[in-house]
Amino acid sequence: MLKNILIAGLLVLASTQTFANETAHHIPGVFIGATHADSETEMSFGIEYEYKLSELWGTGIVFEKTNDAHHGDGADVYLAMAYVHPWNSIRLGLGYGKEDIGGAHGGKEDLYRVESSYDFHVGSFMIAPTLAFDFVDGETHTVTELVFLMPF
Hints:
Number of domains: 1
């Protein structure tokens, strides 16, 4: 599954003819990283999309999957995000969404995210190391990601 998502995301990014610049309004991306929660660290991956409303503000969505979260039951995260770009390559985000936990004792929990990233411009795409904190059911999850973005 991870392989298919990453291949599809890279094909979408590769099919776009553009250059990373501040005038781009559409910013799709794929990411891979790690989520630390309940003294466990698990691999996470997903896709994101941001629409830049202006040079300063953006809005977007995130889908993130952590297959082995919650003692192997897995978790999917769905988020609506608001972004601010206070300086050229810095992006700060606030989001609200749901964490959907699999398994026999699964369920959905409200999730709030605070994140920051720095965009490294490499030719026609960007690489953005990202640090996020998710607040779910009284717990804090730390998410670190490497995001590959292709603005157009």
